[in-house]
Design brief:
The complex is a heterodimer of chains A (about 325) and B (about 300).
Chain A lengths: L13 E11 L4 E12 L4 E5 L6 H9 L6 E10 L2 E2 L5 H11 E4 L13 H12 L7 H14 L5 H5 L8 H15 L3 E5 L7 H18 L2 E5 L3 H7 L2 E6 L2 E7 H6 L4 H8 L39 H5 L5 E4 L2 E3 L7
Parallel strand pairs in A: 3-8, 3-9, 6-7, 7-8
Antiparallel strand pairs in A: 1-2, 1-4, 4-5, 9-10, 10-12, 11-12
Helix pairs in contact in A: 3-4, 3-6, 4-6, 6-7
Chain B lengths: L2 H30 L1 H18 L1 H4 L34 H36 L4 H15 L2 H11 L4 H27 L3 H8 L4 H37 L11 H8 L8 H29 L2
Helix pairs in contact in B: 1-11, 2-4, 2-11, 4-5, 4-7, 4-9, 4-11, 5-7, 6-7, 7-9, 8-9, 9-10, 9-11, 10-11
The chains are: A alpha/beta (about 325), B mainly alpha (about 300).
Protein backbone atom coordinates (compact mmCIF):
# COMPACT_ATOMS: atom_id res chain seq x y z
CA UNK A 1 0.00 0.00 0.00
CA UNK A 2 1.21 3.47 -0.76
CA UNK A 3 0.04 6.97 -0.06
CA UNK A 4 -1.18 8.49 -3.27
CA UNK A 5 0.90 11.36 -4.56
CA UNK A 6 -1.62 12.57 -7.06
CA UNK A 7 -5.11 12.88 -5.72
CA UNK A 8 -5.18 15.78 -3.38
CA UNK A 9 -5.82 19.46 -2.98
CA UNK A 10 -2.56 21.44 -2.75
CA UNK A 11 -4.04 23.65 -0.05
CA UNK A 12 -4.65 20.67 2.17
CA UNK A 13 -1.51 18.64 2.71
CA UNK A 14 -2.40 18.14 6.34
CA UNK A 15 -5.84 18.79 7.72
CA UNK A 16 -6.87 18.38 11.33
CA UNK A 17 -10.61 18.55 11.92
CA UNK A 18 -12.35 18.92 15.28
CA UNK A 19 -9.68 17.06 17.19
CA UNK A 20 -10.26 16.19 20.85
CA UNK A 21 -7.46 14.70 22.96
CA UNK A 22 -7.68 13.66 26.58
CA UNK A 23 -5.05 12.60 29.08
CA UNK A 24 -6.12 10.25 31.80
CA UNK A 25 -4.42 10.12 35.16
CA UNK A 26 -5.48 7.82 37.95
CA UNK A 27 -8.10 10.22 39.31
CA UNK A 28 -8.75 12.84 36.67
CA UNK A 29 -9.32 13.33 32.99
CA UNK A 30 -7.49 16.26 31.44
CA UNK A 31 -9.15 17.76 28.39
CA UNK A 32 -6.02 18.88 26.63
CA UNK A 33 -7.16 19.51 23.09
CA UNK A 34 -10.72 20.68 22.45
CA UNK A 35 -12.05 21.03 18.96
CA UNK A 36 -8.80 21.83 17.18
CA UNK A 37 -8.91 22.40 13.43
CA UNK A 38 -5.84 23.37 11.46
CA UNK A 39 -4.75 22.97 7.91
CA UNK A 40 -1.37 23.09 6.21
CA UNK A 41 -0.93 23.57 2.50
CA UNK A 42 1.86 22.24 0.34
CA UNK A 43 5.00 24.32 0.90
CA UNK A 44 3.32 26.43 3.54
CA UNK A 45 5.03 27.44 6.77
CA UNK A 46 2.75 27.51 9.76
CA UNK A 47 3.48 28.86 13.22
CA UNK A 48 1.73 27.87 16.42
CA UNK A 49 2.09 30.15 19.41
CA UNK A 50 0.64 30.12 22.88
CA UNK A 51 1.74 29.82 26.47
CA UNK A 52 3.38 26.73 27.96
CA UNK A 53 0.83 23.98 28.43
CA UNK A 54 -1.55 25.26 25.78
CA UNK A 55 -1.45 21.90 24.02
CA UNK A 56 0.91 22.76 21.17
CA UNK A 57 3.18 19.75 21.59
CA UNK A 58 0.21 17.45 22.15
CA UNK A 59 -1.18 18.60 18.82
CA UNK A 60 2.03 17.66 16.99
CA UNK A 61 2.28 14.36 18.82
CA UNK A 62 -1.28 13.46 17.96
CA UNK A 63 -0.64 14.19 14.29
CA UNK A 64 2.02 11.46 14.24
CA UNK A 65 0.11 9.46 16.87
CA UNK A 66 2.94 9.19 19.31
CA UNK A 67 0.95 10.35 22.33
CA UNK A 68 1.98 8.99 25.72
CA UNK A 69 0.11 5.88 26.76
CA UNK A 70 -2.42 7.77 28.89
CA UNK A 71 -3.27 10.14 26.05
CA UNK A 72 -6.17 9.37 23.77
CA UNK A 73 -7.68 10.93 20.69
CA UNK A 74 -11.37 10.79 21.49
CA UNK A 75 -12.82 12.26 18.32
CA UNK A 76 -11.88 14.18 15.23
CA UNK A 77 -10.12 13.52 11.99
CA UNK A 78 -6.56 13.96 10.79
CA UNK A 79 -6.07 13.86 7.04
CA UNK A 80 -2.67 13.64 5.46
CA UNK A 81 -3.23 14.13 1.75
CA UNK A 82 -6.16 11.80 1.19
CA UNK A 83 -5.39 9.43 4.06
CA UNK A 84 -7.24 9.53 7.35
CA UNK A 85 -4.42 8.93 9.82
CA UNK A 86 -6.77 7.84 12.58
CA UNK A 87 -8.31 5.08 10.49
CA UNK A 88 -5.60 4.05 8.05
CA UNK A 89 -3.66 0.80 8.25
CA UNK A 90 -0.52 0.53 10.34
CA UNK A 91 1.57 0.14 7.20
CA UNK A 92 0.50 3.49 5.79
CA UNK A 93 1.05 5.20 9.12
CA UNK A 94 4.58 3.78 9.22
CA UNK A 95 5.21 4.93 5.68
CA UNK A 96 4.10 8.45 6.51
CA UNK A 97 6.26 8.51 9.63
CA UNK A 98 9.27 7.09 7.80
CA UNK A 99 9.26 8.88 4.50
CA UNK A 100 7.02 11.90 4.52
CA UNK A 101 6.85 13.61 7.89
CA UNK A 102 9.83 14.43 10.11
CA UNK A 103 9.79 15.84 13.59
CA UNK A 104 12.36 17.90 15.47
CA UNK A 105 12.12 17.33 19.18
CA UNK A 106 12.19 19.73 22.07
CA UNK A 107 14.97 18.21 24.12
CA UNK A 108 17.77 16.97 21.87
CA UNK A 109 19.60 14.99 24.56
CA UNK A 110 16.49 13.10 25.58
CA UNK A 111 15.55 12.42 21.97
CA UNK A 112 18.78 10.51 21.30
CA UNK A 113 19.24 7.01 22.67
CA UNK A 114 22.30 7.13 24.98
CA UNK A 115 23.64 3.68 24.06
CA UNK A 116 23.93 4.31 20.32
CA UNK A 117 26.33 6.43 18.29
CA UNK A 118 25.19 9.18 15.99
CA UNK A 119 25.90 6.86 13.07
CA UNK A 120 23.51 4.24 14.43
CA UNK A 121 20.82 6.87 14.81
CA UNK A 122 21.22 8.33 11.35
CA UNK A 123 21.59 5.00 9.58
CA UNK A 124 18.44 3.67 11.19
CA UNK A 125 16.42 6.66 10.02
CA UNK A 126 17.97 6.55 6.57
CA UNK A 127 17.40 2.85 6.22
CA UNK A 128 13.71 3.38 6.90
CA UNK A 129 13.48 6.42 4.67
CA UNK A 130 15.09 4.57 1.74
CA UNK A 131 13.45 1.23 2.43
CA UNK A 132 12.51 0.33 -1.11
CA UNK A 133 15.53 1.90 -2.80
CA UNK A 134 17.95 -0.94 -1.95
CA UNK A 135 20.96 1.13 -0.94
CA UNK A 136 23.97 -0.45 0.75
CA UNK A 137 25.65 0.68 3.95
CA UNK A 138 28.46 2.75 2.46
CA UNK A 139 25.97 4.77 0.42
CA UNK A 140 23.89 5.34 3.52
CA UNK A 141 26.96 6.60 5.36
CA UNK A 142 27.60 9.01 2.50
CA UNK A 143 24.03 10.27 2.69
CA UNK A 144 24.44 10.66 6.45
CA UNK A 145 27.64 12.65 5.91
CA UNK A 146 25.82 14.89 3.44
CA UNK A 147 23.04 15.46 5.95
CA UNK A 148 25.52 16.39 8.66
CA UNK A 149 27.28 18.74 6.26
CA UNK A 150 23.92 20.29 5.38
CA UNK A 151 23.34 21.01 9.04
CA UNK A 152 26.76 22.70 9.22
CA UNK A 153 28.37 20.23 11.57
CA UNK A 154 32.14 20.58 11.51
CA UNK A 155 34.15 17.38 11.06
CA UNK A 156 31.20 15.05 10.36
CA UNK A 157 33.47 12.00 10.02
CA UNK A 158 34.42 12.23 13.67
CA UNK A 159 30.92 13.11 14.88
CA UNK A 160 29.44 10.00 13.25
CA UNK A 161 31.26 7.77 15.70
CA UNK A 162 30.48 9.81 18.82
CA UNK A 163 27.84 9.16 21.43
CA UNK A 164 25.16 11.78 22.12
CA UNK A 165 26.59 12.68 25.51
CA UNK A 166 29.93 13.58 23.94
CA UNK A 167 28.39 16.41 21.93
CA UNK A 168 27.33 19.91 22.90
CA UNK A 169 23.70 21.03 23.00
CA UNK A 170 23.84 22.86 19.68
CA UNK A 171 25.51 19.91 18.03
CA UNK A 172 22.89 17.48 19.34
CA UNK A 173 20.12 19.73 18.13
CA UNK A 174 21.69 19.70 14.67
CA UNK A 175 21.82 15.91 14.77
CA UNK A 176 18.13 15.81 15.63
CA UNK A 177 17.44 18.20 12.77
CA UNK A 178 19.45 15.99 10.43
CA UNK A 179 17.42 12.97 11.55
CA UNK A 180 14.16 14.83 11.01
CA UNK A 181 15.26 15.99 7.57
CA UNK A 182 16.17 12.44 6.62
CA UNK A 183 12.58 11.31 7.07
CA UNK A 184 10.84 14.53 6.05
CA UNK A 185 10.18 14.66 2.35
CA UNK A 186 7.10 16.83 2.64
CA UNK A 187 6.34 18.09 6.11
CA UNK A 188 8.58 19.10 8.98
CA UNK A 189 7.17 19.38 12.47
CA UNK A 190 9.47 21.55 14.58
CA UNK A 191 8.58 21.47 18.25
CA UNK A 192 10.40 24.35 19.93
CA UNK A 193 13.64 23.43 18.20
CA UNK A 194 15.70 25.95 20.14
CA UNK A 195 14.37 25.82 23.69
CA UNK A 196 17.49 24.47 25.33
CA UNK A 197 20.06 26.52 23.48
CA UNK A 198 21.69 29.84 24.16
CA UNK A 199 20.72 32.85 22.10
CA UNK A 200 23.50 32.87 19.51
CA UNK A 201 23.13 29.17 18.79
CA UNK A 202 19.36 29.66 18.65
CA UNK A 203 19.72 32.19 15.89
CA UNK A 204 22.07 29.89 13.97
CA UNK A 205 19.85 26.85 14.27
CA UNK A 206 16.75 28.71 13.22
CA UNK A 207 18.46 30.23 10.24
CA UNK A 208 19.61 26.74 9.37
CA UNK A 209 16.14 25.24 9.63
CA UNK A 210 14.71 28.09 7.56
CA UNK A 211 17.27 27.60 4.82
CA UNK A 212 16.94 23.83 4.73
CA UNK A 213 13.16 23.96 4.59
CA UNK A 214 13.39 26.49 1.78
CA UNK A 215 15.98 24.44 -0.10
CA UNK A 216 14.02 21.23 0.07
CA UNK A 217 10.64 22.83 -0.46
CA UNK A 218 9.12 21.39 2.69
CA UNK A 219 6.01 22.46 4.50
CA UNK A 220 6.58 23.23 8.15
CA UNK A 221 4.75 23.59 11.42
CA UNK A 222 6.89 25.59 13.82
CA UNK A 223 6.15 25.86 17.50
CA UNK A 224 8.04 28.51 19.37
CA UNK A 225 7.84 31.00 22.18
CA UNK A 226 10.11 33.39 20.36
CA UNK A 227 7.65 35.69 18.63
CA UNK A 228 10.24 37.45 16.50
CA UNK A 229 11.20 34.16 15.04
CA UNK A 230 7.65 33.14 14.23
CA UNK A 231 7.22 36.48 12.53
CA UNK A 232 10.30 35.91 10.41
CA UNK A 233 9.89 32.28 9.50
CA UNK A 234 6.20 31.61 9.02
CA UNK A 235 3.43 32.64 6.67
CA UNK A 236 0.41 31.89 8.81
CA UNK A 237 -0.03 31.63 12.58
CA UNK A 238 -2.43 29.80 14.86
CA UNK A 239 -2.75 31.07 18.42
CA UNK A 240 -3.61 28.45 21.01
CA UNK A 241 -4.92 28.81 24.51
CA UNK A 242 -6.23 26.07 26.78
CA UNK A 243 -6.37 23.47 24.05
CA UNK A 244 -8.32 25.70 21.71
CA UNK A 245 -7.37 27.61 18.61
CA UNK A 246 -8.39 31.16 19.41
CA UNK A 247 -7.07 33.02 16.42
CA UNK A 248 -5.78 32.29 12.97
CA UNK A 249 -4.25 34.84 10.64
CA UNK A 250 -1.50 35.48 8.12
CA UNK A 251 1.63 36.32 10.09
CA UNK A 252 2.06 39.95 9.08
CA UNK A 253 -1.60 40.75 9.76
CA UNK A 254 -1.50 39.10 13.15
CA UNK A 255 1.59 40.96 14.21
CA UNK A 256 0.29 44.27 12.91
CA UNK A 257 -3.07 44.00 14.57
CA UNK A 258 -3.77 41.14 16.96
CA UNK A 259 -7.51 40.74 17.45
CA UNK A 260 -8.11 38.32 20.31
CA UNK A 261 -7.52 39.85 23.77
CA UNK A 262 -5.21 36.95 24.61
CA UNK A 263 -3.06 37.54 21.54
CA UNK A 264 -2.91 41.24 22.35
CA UNK A 265 -1.70 40.48 25.86
CA UNK A 266 0.75 37.88 24.56
CA UNK A 267 2.33 40.41 22.22
CA UNK A 268 2.56 42.95 25.04
CA UNK A 269 4.90 40.59 26.89
CA UNK A 270 7.48 40.81 24.13
CA UNK A 271 10.15 43.31 25.23
CA UNK A 272 10.68 46.27 22.94
CA UNK A 273 14.01 47.95 22.55
CA UNK A 274 12.96 51.58 22.94
CA UNK A 275 10.46 51.14 25.73
CA UNK A 276 10.96 50.29 29.40
CA UNK A 277 10.04 46.72 30.32
CA UNK A 278 6.36 46.44 31.07
CA UNK A 279 4.80 43.55 32.87
CA UNK A 280 1.45 42.10 31.92
CA UNK A 281 -0.72 40.92 34.71
CA UNK A 282 -3.62 38.60 34.18
CA UNK A 283 -6.24 38.11 36.81
CA UNK A 284 -7.32 34.68 37.98
CA UNK A 285 -5.39 31.40 37.99
CA UNK A 286 -3.76 29.32 35.30
CA UNK A 287 -6.12 27.02 33.48
CA UNK A 288 -7.26 23.80 35.13
CA UNK A 289 -7.59 21.19 32.38
CA UNK A 290 -9.68 18.92 34.59
CA UNK A 291 -12.68 21.21 34.47
CA UNK A 292 -12.44 23.82 31.79
CA UNK A 293 -14.55 26.96 32.27
CA UNK A 294 -17.92 27.20 30.56
CA UNK A 295 -18.22 29.58 27.68
CA UNK A 296 -14.96 31.03 26.39
CA UNK A 297 -11.92 29.24 27.88
CA UNK A 298 -10.14 32.55 28.33
CA UNK A 299 -12.98 34.45 30.01
CA UNK A 300 -11.79 34.04 33.67
CA UNK A 301 -8.56 35.79 32.75
CA UNK A 302 -9.74 38.08 30.00
CA UNK A 303 -9.93 41.84 30.72
CA UNK A 304 -13.23 41.94 28.78
CA UNK A 305 -14.49 38.61 30.00
CA UNK A 306 -17.13 39.62 32.54
CA UNK A 307 -20.15 39.70 30.29
CA UNK A 308 -22.91 37.13 30.37
CA UNK A 309 -22.15 35.83 26.86
CA UNK A 310 -18.48 35.24 27.60
CA UNK A 311 -19.28 33.19 30.68
CA UNK A 312 -22.04 31.09 29.15
CA UNK A 313 -21.53 30.71 25.41
CA UNK A 314 -18.58 29.13 23.65
CA UNK A 315 -17.44 31.61 20.99
CA UNK A 316 -18.01 30.59 17.38
CA UNK A 317 -15.66 31.05 14.53
CA UNK A 318 -15.80 34.66 13.35
CA UNK A 319 -14.39 35.41 9.91
CA UNK A 320 -13.04 38.91 10.27
CA UNK A 321 -11.47 38.96 6.88
CA UNK A 322 -11.26 36.41 4.10
CA UNK A 323 -8.12 34.81 5.48
CA UNK A 324 -8.36 35.48 9.16
CA UNK A 325 -10.61 34.09 11.83
CA UNK A 326 -10.94 34.71 15.52
CA UNK A 327 -12.92 32.99 18.24
CA UNK A 328 -14.14 35.84 20.43
CA UNK A 329 -17.51 37.38 21.28
CA UNK A 330 -16.15 40.90 20.86
CA UNK A 331 -16.08 40.40 17.12
CA UNK A 332 -19.25 38.39 16.94
CA UNK A 333 -22.74 39.37 15.81
CA UNK B 1 41.19 5.35 -3.96
CA UNK B 2 38.89 8.32 -4.23
CA UNK B 3 38.38 10.93 -1.56
CA UNK B 4 34.95 9.71 -0.46
CA UNK B 5 36.11 6.12 -0.30
CA UNK B 6 38.98 7.10 1.93
CA UNK B 7 36.60 8.92 4.23
CA UNK B 8 34.33 5.92 4.32
CA UNK B 9 37.08 3.53 5.27
CA UNK B 10 38.22 6.03 7.90
CA UNK B 11 34.77 5.96 9.48
CA UNK B 12 34.49 2.18 9.41
CA UNK B 13 37.98 1.75 10.85
CA UNK B 14 37.18 4.22 13.59
CA UNK B 15 34.10 2.19 14.44
CA UNK B 16 36.13 -1.00 14.75
CA UNK B 17 38.73 0.79 16.87
CA UNK B 18 36.01 2.03 19.18
CA UNK B 19 34.64 -1.46 19.67
CA UNK B 20 38.06 -2.74 20.67
CA UNK B 21 38.57 0.29 22.88
CA UNK B 22 35.29 -0.39 24.66
CA UNK B 23 36.25 -3.99 25.35
CA UNK B 24 39.62 -2.82 26.63
CA UNK B 25 38.00 -0.34 28.97
CA UNK B 26 35.53 -2.93 30.22
CA UNK B 27 38.42 -5.30 30.99
CA UNK B 28 40.27 -2.46 32.72
CA UNK B 29 37.31 -1.75 34.99
CA UNK B 30 36.89 -5.46 35.67
CA UNK B 31 40.48 -6.15 36.59
CA UNK B 32 40.69 -3.09 38.84
CA UNK B 33 38.99 -5.19 41.50
CA UNK B 34 41.22 -8.01 42.74
CA UNK B 35 38.20 -9.87 44.06
CA UNK B 36 36.44 -9.86 40.71
CA UNK B 37 39.59 -11.18 39.09
CA UNK B 38 39.80 -13.93 41.72
CA UNK B 39 36.18 -14.79 41.04
CA UNK B 40 36.83 -14.95 37.32
CA UNK B 41 39.88 -17.20 37.74
CA UNK B 42 38.04 -19.45 40.17
CA UNK B 43 35.05 -19.63 37.87
CA UNK B 44 37.08 -20.50 34.79
CA UNK B 45 39.13 -23.10 36.68
CA UNK B 46 36.00 -24.78 38.00
CA UNK B 47 34.38 -24.67 34.57
CA UNK B 48 37.42 -26.28 32.90
CA UNK B 49 37.55 -28.90 35.65
CA UNK B 50 33.87 -29.69 35.22
CA UNK B 51 34.09 -29.95 31.44
CA UNK B 52 37.17 -32.20 31.49
CA UNK B 53 36.16 -34.07 34.63
CA UNK B 54 37.10 -37.46 33.14
CA UNK B 55 40.69 -36.33 32.64
CA UNK B 56 41.16 -34.14 35.69
CA UNK B 57 39.95 -36.53 38.35
CA UNK B 58 42.02 -39.45 39.60
CA UNK B 59 39.20 -42.05 39.62
CA UNK B 60 36.60 -41.14 37.00
CA UNK B 61 34.87 -44.51 37.44
CA UNK B 62 33.90 -43.58 40.98
CA UNK B 63 31.33 -41.10 39.71
CA UNK B 64 29.12 -43.94 38.51
CA UNK B 65 27.85 -47.05 40.23
CA UNK B 66 30.99 -48.34 41.89
CA UNK B 67 31.65 -50.19 45.10
CA UNK B 68 34.98 -50.96 46.74
CA UNK B 69 34.41 -51.93 50.37
CA UNK B 70 38.11 -52.37 51.04
CA UNK B 71 38.68 -48.65 50.51
CA UNK B 72 35.74 -47.30 52.44
CA UNK B 73 35.91 -44.52 55.09
CA UNK B 74 39.49 -43.51 54.27
CA UNK B 75 40.36 -40.09 55.76
CA UNK B 76 41.81 -37.43 53.42
CA UNK B 77 45.34 -38.09 52.15
CA UNK B 78 47.24 -37.47 48.94
CA UNK B 79 45.50 -40.29 47.06
CA UNK B 80 42.04 -39.23 48.14
CA UNK B 81 42.03 -35.45 48.65
CA UNK B 82 38.64 -35.41 50.37
CA UNK B 83 38.79 -39.01 51.60
CA UNK B 84 36.48 -41.81 50.52
CA UNK B 85 32.83 -42.50 51.32
CA UNK B 86 30.86 -45.44 52.68
CA UNK B 87 31.12 -47.31 49.37
CA UNK B 88 34.81 -46.60 48.92
CA UNK B 89 34.36 -43.95 46.22
CA UNK B 90 36.79 -41.03 45.96
CA UNK B 91 34.89 -37.96 47.16
CA UNK B 92 37.07 -35.46 45.26
CA UNK B 93 36.19 -37.15 41.99
CA UNK B 94 32.53 -37.08 42.84
CA UNK B 95 32.64 -33.39 43.80
CA UNK B 96 34.22 -32.48 40.45
CA UNK B 97 31.49 -34.43 38.65
CA UNK B 98 29.05 -32.61 40.92
CA UNK B 99 30.37 -29.30 39.52
CA UNK B 100 29.46 -30.55 36.08
CA UNK B 101 25.86 -31.12 37.12
CA UNK B 102 25.75 -27.75 38.89
CA UNK B 103 27.03 -25.92 35.79
CA UNK B 104 24.55 -27.83 33.66
CA UNK B 105 21.76 -26.75 35.95
CA UNK B 106 22.85 -23.10 35.88
CA UNK B 107 23.30 -23.17 32.14
CA UNK B 108 19.91 -24.66 31.42
CA UNK B 109 17.96 -22.67 34.01
CA UNK B 110 19.52 -19.31 33.12
CA UNK B 111 19.30 -19.89 29.40
CA UNK B 112 15.58 -20.57 29.69
CA UNK B 113 14.74 -18.02 32.37
CA UNK B 114 16.77 -15.13 30.96
CA UNK B 115 15.21 -14.87 27.48
CA UNK B 116 11.72 -15.83 28.58
CA UNK B 117 11.67 -13.49 31.57
CA UNK B 118 13.20 -10.65 29.57
CA UNK B 119 10.83 -10.94 26.62
CA UNK B 120 7.76 -11.18 28.86
CA UNK B 121 8.97 -8.21 30.92
CA UNK B 122 9.61 -6.13 27.80
CA UNK B 123 6.17 -6.91 26.41
CA UNK B 124 4.40 -6.17 29.68
CA UNK B 125 6.39 -3.00 30.29
CA UNK B 126 6.00 -1.66 26.78
CA UNK B 127 2.26 -2.32 26.63
CA UNK B 128 1.80 -1.01 30.15
CA UNK B 129 -1.85 -0.64 31.07
CA UNK B 130 -3.06 -2.93 28.29
CA UNK B 131 -4.42 -6.46 28.74
CA UNK B 132 -1.05 -7.98 27.82
CA UNK B 133 0.56 -6.21 30.77
CA UNK B 134 -2.14 -7.36 33.16
CA UNK B 135 -2.16 -10.98 32.07
CA UNK B 136 1.63 -11.35 32.16
CA UNK B 137 2.16 -9.50 35.41
CA UNK B 138 -0.70 -11.17 37.27
CA UNK B 139 0.64 -14.56 36.22
CA UNK B 140 4.06 -13.48 37.51
CA UNK B 141 2.47 -12.31 40.76
CA UNK B 142 0.83 -15.69 41.19
CA UNK B 143 4.18 -17.45 40.96
CA UNK B 144 5.85 -14.93 43.25
CA UNK B 145 3.15 -15.18 45.90
CA UNK B 146 3.98 -18.84 46.62
CA UNK B 147 7.17 -19.22 48.70
CA UNK B 148 9.84 -20.24 46.17
CA UNK B 149 11.06 -23.36 47.93
CA UNK B 150 7.54 -24.63 48.53
CA UNK B 151 6.72 -24.10 44.87
CA UNK B 152 9.84 -25.91 43.69
CA UNK B 153 9.29 -28.76 46.13
CA UNK B 154 5.67 -29.25 45.17
CA UNK B 155 6.50 -29.25 41.46
CA UNK B 156 9.25 -31.82 42.09
CA UNK B 157 6.90 -33.90 44.22
CA UNK B 158 4.17 -33.93 41.57
CA UNK B 159 6.61 -34.87 38.83
CA UNK B 160 9.03 -37.74 39.12
CA UNK B 161 12.04 -36.77 41.28
CA UNK B 162 15.03 -36.46 38.97
CA UNK B 163 17.49 -33.81 37.85
CA UNK B 164 15.49 -32.66 34.80
CA UNK B 165 12.35 -32.07 36.82
CA UNK B 166 14.39 -30.19 39.42
CA UNK B 167 15.52 -27.88 36.62
CA UNK B 168 11.93 -27.41 35.47
CA UNK B 169 10.93 -26.55 39.02
CA UNK B 170 13.70 -23.98 39.43
CA UNK B 171 12.88 -22.47 36.04
CA UNK B 172 9.22 -22.07 36.95
CA UNK B 173 9.97 -20.32 40.21
CA UNK B 174 12.59 -18.08 38.67
CA UNK B 175 11.12 -16.37 35.61
CA UNK B 176 8.81 -13.91 37.41
CA UNK B 177 11.75 -12.19 39.06
CA UNK B 178 13.32 -11.38 35.71
CA UNK B 179 9.97 -10.38 34.29
CA UNK B 180 9.33 -8.01 37.17
CA UNK B 181 12.76 -6.42 36.96
CA UNK B 182 12.62 -5.94 33.19
CA UNK B 183 9.03 -4.74 33.49
CA UNK B 184 9.91 -1.98 35.92
CA UNK B 185 12.85 -0.79 33.85
CA UNK B 186 10.94 -0.97 30.57
CA UNK B 187 7.92 0.88 31.86
CA UNK B 188 10.25 3.64 33.05
CA UNK B 189 12.01 3.85 29.68
CA UNK B 190 8.95 3.57 27.47
CA UNK B 191 8.02 7.19 28.13
CA UNK B 192 11.52 8.51 27.48
CA UNK B 193 11.53 11.05 24.66
CA UNK B 194 13.90 8.96 22.56
CA UNK B 195 11.41 6.13 22.54
CA UNK B 196 8.57 8.20 21.21
CA UNK B 197 11.06 9.91 18.92
CA UNK B 198 11.79 6.48 17.48
CA UNK B 199 8.08 5.88 17.10
CA UNK B 200 7.68 9.19 15.31
CA UNK B 201 10.43 8.13 12.91
CA UNK B 202 8.46 5.03 12.03
CA UNK B 203 10.19 2.32 14.03
CA UNK B 204 7.97 -0.70 14.69
CA UNK B 205 6.98 -1.53 18.26
CA UNK B 206 8.90 -4.80 18.24
CA UNK B 207 12.09 -3.02 17.09
CA UNK B 208 11.64 -0.33 19.72
CA UNK B 209 11.47 -3.00 22.41
CA UNK B 210 14.46 -5.00 21.28
CA UNK B 211 16.66 -2.39 19.65
CA UNK B 212 15.98 0.80 21.60
CA UNK B 213 14.99 -0.30 25.09
CA UNK B 214 16.77 -3.64 25.53
CA UNK B 215 20.35 -2.32 25.01
CA UNK B 216 19.67 0.24 27.74
CA UNK B 217 18.74 -2.38 30.33
CA UNK B 218 21.11 -5.18 29.33
CA UNK B 219 23.65 -4.38 32.07
CA UNK B 220 21.39 -4.97 35.08
CA UNK B 221 19.90 -8.10 33.46
CA UNK B 222 23.29 -9.75 32.92
CA UNK B 223 24.51 -8.78 36.38
CA UNK B 224 21.39 -10.27 37.92
CA UNK B 225 21.90 -13.44 35.89
CA UNK B 226 25.42 -13.95 37.28
CA UNK B 227 24.41 -13.20 40.83
CA UNK B 228 21.37 -15.45 40.46
CA UNK B 229 23.53 -18.34 39.28
CA UNK B 230 24.68 -18.74 42.87
CA UNK B 231 21.07 -18.95 44.03
CA UNK B 232 20.25 -21.51 41.37
CA UNK B 233 23.04 -23.73 42.73
CA UNK B 234 21.74 -23.31 46.26
CA UNK B 235 18.14 -24.06 45.37
CA UNK B 236 19.18 -27.00 43.21
CA UNK B 237 21.28 -28.36 46.05
CA UNK B 238 18.41 -27.85 48.48
CA UNK B 239 16.00 -29.78 46.28
CA UNK B 240 18.51 -32.59 45.88
CA UNK B 241 19.29 -32.53 49.58
CA UNK B 242 15.64 -33.09 50.35
CA UNK B 243 15.67 -36.08 48.03
CA UNK B 244 13.53 -34.57 45.25
CA UNK B 245 16.33 -33.84 42.80
CA UNK B 246 19.05 -36.09 41.47
CA UNK B 247 18.87 -39.61 42.87
CA UNK B 248 21.78 -41.31 44.73
CA UNK B 249 24.32 -42.79 42.42
CA UNK B 250 24.33 -39.48 40.52
CA UNK B 251 27.17 -37.33 41.90
CA UNK B 252 25.08 -34.21 42.64
CA UNK B 253 26.42 -31.94 45.38
CA UNK B 254 23.13 -31.68 47.28
CA UNK B 255 22.42 -35.38 47.00
CA UNK B 256 25.93 -36.17 48.24
CA UNK B 257 25.50 -33.97 51.31
CA UNK B 258 22.25 -35.65 52.26
CA UNK B 259 23.83 -39.06 51.66
CA UNK B 260 26.95 -38.38 53.72
CA UNK B 261 25.27 -36.40 56.49
CA UNK B 262 24.32 -39.63 58.26
CA UNK B 263 27.97 -40.42 58.90
CA UNK B 264 28.79 -36.93 60.10
CA UNK B 265 30.40 -36.92 63.53
CA UNK B 266 32.52 -40.03 63.04
CA UNK B 267 33.54 -39.72 59.37
CA UNK B 268 33.58 -35.92 59.27
CA UNK B 269 35.57 -35.57 56.05
CA UNK B 270 32.81 -37.04 53.91
CA UNK B 271 30.58 -34.00 54.27
CA UNK B 272 33.44 -31.47 54.01
CA UNK B 273 34.09 -32.17 50.31
CA UNK B 274 30.67 -31.40 48.76
CA UNK B 275 30.03 -28.53 51.19
CA UNK B 276 33.31 -26.90 50.26
CA UNK B 277 32.47 -27.49 46.62
CA UNK B 278 29.17 -25.61 46.90
CA UNK B 279 30.79 -22.81 48.89
CA UNK B 280 33.57 -22.26 46.34
CA UNK B 281 31.16 -22.41 43.40
CA UNK B 282 28.83 -19.85 44.94
CA UNK B 283 31.69 -17.59 45.96
CA UNK B 284 33.14 -17.58 42.45
CA UNK B 285 29.77 -16.58 40.96
CA UNK B 286 29.22 -13.82 43.50
CA UNK B 287 32.66 -12.32 42.95
CA UNK B 288 32.18 -12.54 39.20
CA UNK B 289 28.79 -10.85 39.46
CA UNK B 290 30.23 -8.01 41.50
CA UNK B 291 32.94 -7.51 38.90
CA UNK B 292 30.39 -7.46 36.06
CA UNK B 293 28.30 -4.93 37.93
CA UNK B 294 31.31 -2.62 38.10
CA UNK B 295 31.88 -3.08 34.39
CA UNK B 296 28.32 -2.11 33.50
CA UNK B 297 28.07 0.67 36.06
CA UNK B 298 31.12 2.36 34.56
CA UNK B 299 29.60 2.69 31.10
Amino acid sequence: MQVSDLVFDANRLLTVKNLYVKYKSYWYIYHVLNDISINVGLGEKIGIIGESGAGKTTLLKSILQVLPINGKITSGEIFYRDVNLLKCSKQILLEIRRKRVGMIFQDPLAALNPVFTIKDHLLEVLRYANETANIDKSDLINIALDLLRDTLIPDPERILNSYPFQLSGGMRQRIVIAMALASARELLLADEPTTNLDVTIQAQILKLIGELVEKRGLSMILISHALGLIRKMTERVYVMYGGNIIEEAPTFKLFNEPLHPYTQLLFKTAPKILEPLSSVELRGNPLDYRNLPNGCVFHPRCPYGDSEVCRKVKPHQVKVEKDRTVYCHIYGS
Amino acid sequence: MSHTQRKLSFILEKEKEMKIERLRRAWFRFKKSKLALTGFLLFSTLLVMAIFAEFVTPYPKHAETYVDFKARFRPPDLNHLFGTDHLGRDIFTRVVFGFRLAFLMIGIVISIVLPVGTVLGLLAGYYKGKWLDYSIMRAADMFVSIPPLVLALSICAILEPNIVNAMIAVTLMWWPWYTRMVYSMTSALRDEPYVWAARALGVRDINIMFREILPNILGPILTKATLDAAWVILIGATISFLGLGAQPPTPDLGTMISEYMVYFPQYWWMIIGPTLGIAILIMSFNLLGDGLRDVFAGE
